[in-house]
Amino acid sequence: MNPKRKKRLIYVVLIVAGVGAAAALMVTAFQQNMMYFITPTEIAAGAVQQGRSIRLGGVVSEGSLRRENDGLTVHFKVTDNANEVPVRYKGILPDLFREGQGIIAIGKVTADNLFVADEVLAKHDENYMPPEVMEALEKSGAKSPHKPEAK
Amino acid sequence: MTFAEFIDMGGYGSYVWSSYGIALVVLVANVVIPLLSARKQKRELLGKLKRMENS
Amino acid sequence: MWQFFHKLASPKFFYDFSSRLIFWLAIVTIILMASGLYMGLVEAPPDYQQKDSYRIMFIHVPAAWMSMFVYMVMAITGAINLIWRIKLADIISMSCAPLGASFTFLALVTGSIWGKPMWGTWWVWDARLTSELILLFLYLGYMALRASIEDKTNASRAAAVLALVGVVNIPIIHYSVEWWNTLHQGPTVTKFDKPSIHTSMLIPLLLMAFAFKTYFVSVLLVRTRTELLVREFRSSWARKELSK
């Protein structure tokens, strides 16, 4: 390689390395803010200000789902297997919402430690398979069971 | 499976087919646009060459 | 091998060779896409959780993969142009941008349409979605930069530097779902520990992914050939080609 090309190659490597380092630093600095949601444990630890809008992420506790008579308001608990947070939500739930499902609720923590959600989003897993295969896997214990319908 | 069931996609038909429809439009556009521009450019370049030869 | 690459970099040889390549790639694309669509839409069973809505995956995932792949091609050919000043590399880099932008747009739109029934929202500002949106802006910025600089050589160098700077976004997109809590699920196919997609769904997905690749190469070559003619029209081979 002639010296001119070598110099250009070095420039290119420097650009990529420099920008990469800057991005890595920014990503580390913003680590907290980049977190899309917080966990029930963080709420239990009192890390969350009351009345501030936050995103709560976790799994809907088995057997915690209860509907009010108006058919719109639902109560359920969100768990991260260490702590639970009771949630109240009024509105239409996503199709994937069921007990045992990972969800994200957007709302505020009230004084009596109830989480009042304005919006509930379902987070699905990265598994794709036919229902029969999932059933077989659950029977053999390779996968933890899921609830097909909680409605 | 009937044809109607196929179109319905278990109730998700509008979501599934709109996705595939948009994909079709984008993929076809990316074939047609370069082909049309190739024809147009060739015509223009040929004209340029002719003018260069004449002058 | 090296001789072949040397020959390929010569405009005349590239022009002749790519003509035949486009023809065969188009046929392969049609076969792959037809079989992928049939297996994905008709033969594959519905998903245990997402029912039939998961079939959007056969467009969404290949488009998302391509959005990153095309960017890497654009950046690498940009770097080759910066260092070795190879004209063909610059033309390829330039032809990548609108195609990459299209794939990114497709990934974002189909993801949004998929997200509405499954997640319950069209859009969230989480790390995966935001970094993919930044990718779209990088492509658009690249095209705008090229269009705004009059001098072709300067434009190609400035655009190549922008493309290189944007490369940092690619690992961020890929690892965003592992580094941060996001709404988007983790990787399905590219994780190594255990397969988490059933074969009946994986095969159409891979067929579609390959179809998108061959599609990309063939339309890229069409764009590249045109630009090559525009830049070389005074040379004897181009004159012959034009007067055909």
Describe the model.
The complex is a heterotrimer of chains A (151), B (55) and C (244). Chain A is an alpha+beta fold and 151 residues long. Chain A folds into two domains: 3-33; 35-140, OB fold (Dihydrolipoamide Acetyltransferase, E2P). Helices cover 30% and strands 26% of the residues of chain A. Chain A has four helices and six strands. Chain A has helices at 3-29, 31-34, 40-44, 131-140; strands at residues 54-60, 66-67, 73-79, 84-90, 102-109, 115-123. Chain A has a five-stranded mixed beta barrel. Chain A starts with a helix and ends in an 11-residue tail after the last helix. In chain A, 23% of the residues are buried. The model of chain A is unreliable at 147-151 (pLDDT under 50). With 55 residues, chain B is an all-alpha fold. Chain B has one domain (15-54). Chain B has helices at 3-8, 13-54. Chain C is an all-alpha fold and 244 residues long. Chain C has helices at 2-8, 11-43, 57-84, 87-118, 127-148, 152-166, 169-179, 199-232, 236-242. In chain C, helix 4 (87-118) runs antiparallel to helix 5 (127-148), helix 4 (87-118) runs antiparallel to helix 8 (199-232) and helix 5 (127-148) packs antiparallel against helix 7 (169-179). The longest helix of chain C is centred in the last third of the chain and has 34 residues, at 199-232. Chain C starts with a helix and ends with a helix. The mean pLDDT of chain C is 90. Chains in contact: A-C, B-C.
What's the arrangement of secondary structure elements?
The complex is a heterotrimer of chains A (151), B (55) and C (244).
Chain A: H1 3-29, H2 31-34, H3 40-44, E1 54-60, E2 66-67, E3 73-79, E4 84-90, E5 102-109, E6 115-123, H4 131-140
Parallel strand pairs in A: 4-6
Antiparallel strand pairs in A: 1-3, 1-5, 2-3, 3-4, 5-6
Chain B: H1 3-8, H2 13-54
Chain C: H1 2-8, H2 11-43, H3 57-84, H4 87-118, H5 127-148, H6 152-166, H7 169-179, H8 199-232, H9 236-242
Helix pairs in contact in C: 2-8, 3-4, 3-6, 3-8, 4-5, 4-8, 5-6, 5-7
First and last CA, distance of chain A: 69 Å
Extended strand count of chain A: 6
* CATH architectural label of the largest domain in chain A: Beta Barrel
Mean pLDDT across every amino acid position of chain A: 80
Largest pleated sheet of chain A: 5 strands, mixed, barrel
Number of domains of chain A: 2
Please provide the ordered H/E string of secondary-structure elements of chain A: HHHEEEEEEH
Distance between the amino and carboxyl termini of chain B: 70 Å
Unreliable runs of chain A, pLDDT <50, ≥5 residues?
A: 147-151
Shape of chain A: elongated
Backbone structural class of chain A: alpha+beta
For the sheet with most strands of chain B, the description reads: none
Number of strands of chain B: 0
Name the strands of the widest sheet of chain A in spatial order: 1-3-4-6-5
How much helicity do the residues of chain B have? Answer: over 70%
Rounded radius of gyration of chain A (Å): 23 Å
Order of helices and strands of chain B: HH
Largest interface: A-C, 42 and 43 residues
